[in-house]
Amino acid sequence: MGAVFAVTRRIDRETLDRVSKRLSHRGREVAGSVLSDDFCAVYRGNETIRGEPAYPHLHKASRFVIVLDGFIKLARPLVDVSFRSRNPALDQKDVIVRAYLREGIDFLSHLRGSFSLLLYDRELRTLIVARDPVGTKSIVYAESDGIFACASEAKALFELPWLKNRKLDASGIHLATHLRYIPAPFTCFHGVKKLEPGTALVVRRGEIRKIGYYVPDDTPQVGCTDLQANEATLSRLRSSIISIGSILRGRKFGIALSGGISSTAIVEQMRRHFPDEISTYSAIVDHCPDEAAGARQTAKYYGTRHHECIEKASPFESLSSWLYYLEEPRFSLLPYSALAKNLAPGTSNIILGAGADEVLVGHEIYRLLLPSLGWQMLFSKRLSQVFLGPFADLLCRGSEVIFPSPLADLGRQGIEITLSTGDPTRYYGLWRGALDFRKRISNRIFTREFSKEVEATTRDVFQPFFERDGRDVLENALFAEFRTRLPEHTLLALERIFGAVGVTPEYPYLDENFFEYFFSVPFKIKMKLGDLKHVLKAAMKEILPDNTLEKRKEHLAYNVYDLVSAGLLQAAEKYLSKDALAATGIYRHKYVKKILDTEPDEILTWHYNLLSTMICVQSIALMFAGSEMPAISWEDRPTSFRRLHLANYVDSEP
């Protein structure tokens, strides 16, 4: 795990050192920098990344500067361009240069892996900035008066004199509040953009050109059978695990284990092909669903060294340091942070099941979208966009006058969802909790002045995904989840949280050979009769224990009623005072006060909005705190952790 920075002009050494310091929170770090008249770059990262020493590399006669965070693979072999060197660091950078000299900008289409890549051609005075196809790494960038700057994190950009004045971006905050994440190219900061996955920027003489070099091909295979899909699942997962296990051999690593099918399949394959002692970790977080029992059973079944990472802090009390790293509001971090803070000392990598829900259709959203699929087969979506959506708004506005209670709001939400069935974008957004499709609610949350500044809404983000020709609602939703929610909601949090403690995440389900194949598997095979992860279950039916195959997926969402009992209301009164909200200029205190005055109820989720609002306000404060927030250093990591004796917890084999 590392961080990169580049700017297309000379800056002084003192500024470059400040930039480097902003990026310095990745464990046993190495650092490198390049300072020249027309280009400056910084790299900070772990001592090794997949065996590769991490430092900037000037290739041959100093024509090229390459800064690489992560690792690359070649999707297709190029003549005379291959991995040959015994030195992995020189090998990867040498391959990049040779591919670039041979193919020009088109060399990007050959690259796979997990990386942030900066390639500067001094002869042509051209900078190429690329984000990997899945978006496991993140790059933000800004342009001012012909000067281009990019970095892994925005805090590094704000050390540049011409970018010191920070201003919030209304669209980014709007999307963060409604979606619980910020899709690329938006960020929380005005003038700072996020590079989309599978996209590159070519900067030359002050001109910036954006190139989309990779889009997963989800054209369904003709004649694909269930048996073929099942066999491919097992073989490709095996190949991915063997690849990761071979790289991690001899290192101290862990596997995140929930007891569900995705993580258990990883443990099973690791045990089968790398039978040495395996360490597994599960998170126990107060006010969230407890998956500890299932994880314990799985750990005992496979004989792993199992650890439970316990997080008892309330979410509104323990997120400050993590929000500093994420640089945007986030609402479900504690399970990840519990793992990161409690990994055994010396752990260099953590293997996670992230991506399985997107690639193998594991999210509940796909079941919820089935009615929209039926509507799309019978009627034109134009009917819903022009008539049913506005009618739902009008009907709900009238019902609020007659039935103003919060409980009636559940019924109004049901009406809106039902009447939006024929509008896939709206239907998807409502199920994803995007309140900006419910205008009367959105207008109560935000001040009028803030709402006028918002230029991009949830519809603007997702409409292009649901207008692709020749794809149904489910296929478009899968594509949208993979291109937006996976990288910006899940992977961004995992990379930065584990990076803050010097640990590199590994994702077997995001190996290109795995996900590229499954994008071409017909949806009717991936989900049969509403059965999520059907292909993985069928492939592992004779391998995994029955309790794992039958385990119901738990969503790591906070129990709002428990949070209220644990002091949410008192914290809200402190953090969301009238003066505090007025200082942001974003939220209406009248709306917050109405929630505070509502009696807590186990059914209603109104009070969740208090938590999301507090985190957003806290994030904004941290964004403008600049460099005052202390970073978590390697030495600050806890050296104690809870090691279970499973015989005391599990009475029988699963």
Draw up the topology in text:
Layout: E1 2-7, H1 13-22, E2 29-35, E3 40-46, E4 48-49, E5 52-53, E6 57-59, E7 64-74, H2 88-103, E8 111-121, E9 126-131, E10 140-144, E11 147-151, H3 154-157, H4 170-179, E12 193-194, E13 199-204, E14 207-212, H5 226-248, E15 253-256, H6 261-273, E16 279-285, H7 292-302, E17 305-311, H8 315-318, H9 320-326, H10 334-342, E18 349-351, H11 356-359, H12 365-368, H13 370-378, H14 381-402, H15 406-419, H16 424-431, H17 439-445, H18 448-453, H19 458-462, H20 473-499, E19 504-506, H21 512-518, H22 523-526, H23 534-539, H24 546-550, H25 560-575, H26 578-584, H27 589-596, H28 608-623, E20 642-643
Parallel strand pairs: 15-16, 15-18, 16-17, 18-19
Antiparallel strand pairs: 1-3, 1-11, 2-3, 4-5, 6-7, 7-8, 8-9, 9-13, 10-11, 10-12, 13-14, 17-20
Helix pairs in contact: 5-6, 5-21, 14-15, 25-28
Q: Count the E strands.
A: 20
End-to-end Cα distance, whole Å, is: 36 Å
Strand content: 15-25%
Question: Helical content, roughly?
Answer: 40-55%
Structural class: alpha+beta
The order of strands across the largest sheet is 2-3-1-11-10-12
Inertia-based shape: globular
For the sheet with most strands, the description reads: 6 strands, antiparallel
Low-pLDDT sequence parts: 83-90, 627-654
The total count of helices amounts to 28
Q: Give the mean pLDDT.
A: 81
Structure, explained:
- It is a single chain.
- The protein has 654 residues and is an alpha+beta fold.
- Strands 2-3-1-11-10-12 form a 6-stranded antiparallel sheet. A 6-stranded antiparallel sheet has the order 6-7-8-9-13-14.
- Helix 5 (226-248) packs across helix 6 (261-273) and helix 5 (226-248) runs antiparallel to helix 21.
- The longest helix has 27 residues, at 473-499.
- The protein starts with a strand and ends in an 11-residue tail after the last strand.
